[in-house]
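Exercise 7 asks you to align residues with tokens for two separate proteins.
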Amino acid sequence: MTAAAAAGPRIGLIHATAFSMPPIDAAFDRLWPQARRMHLLDDSLSRDRQRDGDLTPAMVQRFVDLATYAKRAGAQGILFTCSAFGPAIEAAGRAVAIPTLKPNEALFSQALARGRRLGLMVTFEPSLESLAQELRGLAAQRGAAIELRTVFVPEAMDDLAQGRAADHHCKIAAAAGVLADCDAVMLGQFSMAPAQPQVQAALRCPVLTTPECAVQALRERISAGPG
């Protein structure tokens, strides 16, 4: 067995913001330290998505190109950490034909197992509608009737960008109060994961984060092998 094989598979981690990188590294440290991480960052993706207002063919091709690069560099699985790009990630997964996860699919699966009254929080507003549609679509596939409440937390992402992490966490925790009677609350972006302890302290229901759910799901998928 080679040293690389003993260390675990190479995982391509593709980001649209640098804020997603520390939370996913922390989740790998806790849940799958043997995996060899390969970070790819294109921090213009979110800005271009917000500018264009929708996914363009050119944007979809950029996702295919990023995934193809990761595969050629030896990645055996890919995790996109950027929300609001679901169809582009699906196209990238089809192109590379290796396990490729959207950031929220594992999160949504775990939330649906918790109950029907679900809360979804984001700090990047363009991601809200696409994530809600993705969750409702998954629920419909499973024959589950859900009551979804969504919350956009304005200014929190700006706080994070300007180094005010404590303010970021506090804003999210304060906004979570309207979701107090949910069966589970989802923090819909990787960058929100560090706020989980404060949000959990404000709520009685489980507060789920994208990084931990995604790492667990990708590890299981790769361990299962083809098919």
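Second protein for Exercise 7:
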Amino acid sequence: MSEIISIKNLSFKYHDGSEALKNLSLAISENERVAFVGGNGAGKSTLLLHLNGILQGEGDVKIYGKELRKSNLTEIRKIVGILFEDPDDQLFCPTVSEDIAFGPLNLELSENEIKSRVKDSLAKVGLEGFENRSPHRLSYGEKKRIALATLFAMEPKILALDEPTSNLDPKSRRKLIEILKSFNGTVILATHDLECVLELCERTIVLKNGEILKDGSTRDILANEKLMLDSDLEVPVSLIKN
């Protein structure tokens, strides 16, 4: 598989001086499904937000061989779609169709192409006919799926998802996981939901204090009780031997 994400010696400090990432290096190949896991403050979300330039630290980040810079952020953001943990951070228009169309409009696509993308994106998340609904009157699970539809409308090659299943009821969580399973591209999760990781990701990267603690097979990593405890995590219930 070809390498599509390359991160070398990445470090990042927040304005208060706290060091969130420390000289971190990794590579991700095309169509991989990778999870970033770790306790609170491990650096998961910070790392995820470097993938399309929302945050920019010291070091090298390349997407499909293109070095991430301010001058090419628009191009990179066509490739990498970021889903925020809170869908209200992503939805700001009066109607669902306007929210989904916002990104394609900035690509200066034709009106017919934009309408087609809105319709197709809603179908992918199972919310056909929601075009004229107000996003802020939807359930939390529906908001999450509409936020995901805004990414699908940009036709990204990479989905980078920050706690995608957080605060979802079991039915909404199951629906979102099934949608992500059907995505034909690279998927990267930053999450505490280790059962979701088991379902979606063949590879897991464990972070602690802004550094990579372990990188390898999801099942091997999540079944390692000592590693999980050292990472402020717990072995998923489904992997606990009776």
